[in-house]
Design a protein that fits this description.
single chain, alpha+beta, Aminopeptidase, seven-stranded mixed beta sheet, about 30% helix, transferase, acyltransferase
Amino acid sequence: MDLAFLLDKCTLQVYDATISACCDNFDCGNDDLNDFFQKDALLYQSQLLGKTYCFTLDENPKEIVCAFTISNDSIKTTHLPNSRKQKVNKKISNQKRMRTYPAVLIGRLGVNKNYRSVRGENDRTGKQLMDFIKSWFVDGANKTGCRFIVVDSYNTPSPLKYYKRNDFENLFSTEEQEKEFTGLDSSAILKTRLLYFDLIVLHN
């Protein structure tokens, strides 16, 4: 994992009232995400529904480079079709298989549109951010067990491509399957897709 830009030139901070008041408005190019970080992130935090973090630029601390919100979640294999259940269970030994696996949910994630690709760095900021999040939950200092990262991605090409490029897989193989198992009418538009990443591949 190459985290050079985020770790060397930015500072990780809890997105709190001070950050919200002092920093420039965060713009990741998505109005829905911008509204969440500007208007709702602190409310979610006060209600213990999610905790938001951000990286600010060291040379200009008012600049938020990227931000993300995480909360506790799980993957319930009892809610999955047999084929998908087998896929989730594939890397888990038979004696350790459970009906529910601990997971962390990435509720929101955005990268400042001016920092999508950092000139002179080996990797894009979005890739570094995802690598950082993954590293958090396989670190020996992590205080809880967490097998998977899950995300409810916008069902549009750009975010889906981002998560697939970062080795996330669809929890359901088709949109029709996902609608059925999440209780949506077959004629409804599926606005998001559930994806997951198995952290065991990073665990030493």
